[in-house]
Write a structure and sequence with these properties.
Elements lengths: L4 H4 L23 E2 L2 E2 L8 E7 L5 E11 L2 E4 L1 H8 L5 E5 L10 E4 L3 E5 L12 E5 L22 E6 L15 E8 L13 E3 L5 E2 L7 E4 L7 E10 L2 E7 L10 H6 L23 H10 L1
Antiparallel strand pairs: 1-13, 2-11, 3-4, 3-6, 4-5, 5-9, 6-7, 8-9, 10-11, 10-14, 11-12, 12-16, 14-15, 15-16
């Protein structure tokens, strides 16, 4: 793969390996910088994926989001290691403090893993789905209609576990959350797919290890709406998120979801705007005449 200065600086936020084709190690845990602790029960749709260490203990691996009672969405650069059997993982749903025993635990023999087959860090393809054998009780988040466009300046939330300071290896066990503004995304001359979402500031951003964690609006509708998932960063974007409103990203998942009876999980297109009713001849002229009379 040809490199440029921009490409060399990408941080796929779960691993030291930056490029999709050369991942050789599993993601390393980290967290939201500039965030605040999340109270128990406040974000039940935010999922922690844990990995089993050599000594049998479980530790943080990646973030994720419950988008249906049977479907968890995460980054493909997280799910692919699980799918390949390089990481033994389990899902913990509805637990904010990783030192407690709360939430629902789903072991790997009770879910199926699907990763985007064309995943690349340069394109909006960093999506993996974990399909549960049985529904869980925790409330799920919703997805935005396809082709939803986020305007720069819109405030969204990002959640994750681990270090709150990238220079300090100590990491809190409790889920952290930060409010991030959406930024206009600079593709740097076409290096990056224009479909990505960029969000964050110099003081508040998703850090290495937050991979797969959701970018969401907790008050968008009757359910929280997950617009994106943490994927990486670029020279010009402190927080790069997979855009879940991109229709193309869902194409490889249509058949697997249908095989589980879950076709409804893929979001529908945004409603078309109502057509403007045709004006009768002379209507506009009359209005203008009245305004100047």
């Amino acid at each position: 793969m040809r490199e440029s200065t921009s490409r060399r600086t990408i941080a796929a936020l779960a691993s030291a390996g930056a490029f999709a084709i050369v991942f050789t190690t599993a993601p390393a845990a980290s967290a939201i910088v500039g965030g605040a602790p999340v109270a128990d029960g406040e974000r039940p749709y935010v999922v922690q994926i844990e990995q089993q260490e050599d000594d049998g203990k479980w530790s943080h691996y990646c973030g994720a989001a419950l988008i249906d009672s049977r479907v968890v969405a995460t980054a493909a650069h997280c799910s692919k290691f699980i799918q390949q059997g390089k990481v033994k993982a389990r899902l913990v749903i509805g637990r904010a403090d990783s030192t407690t025993s709360g939430g629902t635990v789903v072991t790997d023999d009770h879910f199926s893993v699907y990763s985007h087959p064309e995943f690349s860090t340069l394109t909006n393809t960093d999506l993996g789905l974990l399909v549960l054998d049985s529904p869980v009780d925790q409330p799920s988040a919703a997805l935005p209609p396809l082709r939803t466009a986020l305007q720069p300046g819109r405030l969204l939330r990002a959640d994750g576990w681990g270090r709150t300071d990238i220079n300090d290896e100590k990491k809190p066990a409790r889920l952290q959350e930060a409010t991030l503004p959406v930024n206009a995304f600079d593709t740097e001359g076409g290096t990056w797919d224009k479909e990505f979402i960029c969000a964050g500031t110099a003081d508040k951003y998703a850090a290495p290890g937050d991979s797969g964690g959701p970018l969401f609006d907790p008050e968008a509708s009757d359910k929280a709406v997950v617009y994106g998932l943490v994927t990486g960063s670029t020279n010009t974007c402190t927080g790069l998120f997979t855009n879940l409103a991109d229709p193309a990203i869902w194409k490889p998942f249509r058949e697997p979801l249908a095989s589980h009876g879950l076709s409804h999980v893929i979001p529908a297109d945004a409603p078309a705007p109502s057509p403007t009713p045709p004006q009768r001849p002379g209507t506009a002229r009359h209005a203008l005449a009245g305004a100047t009379g």
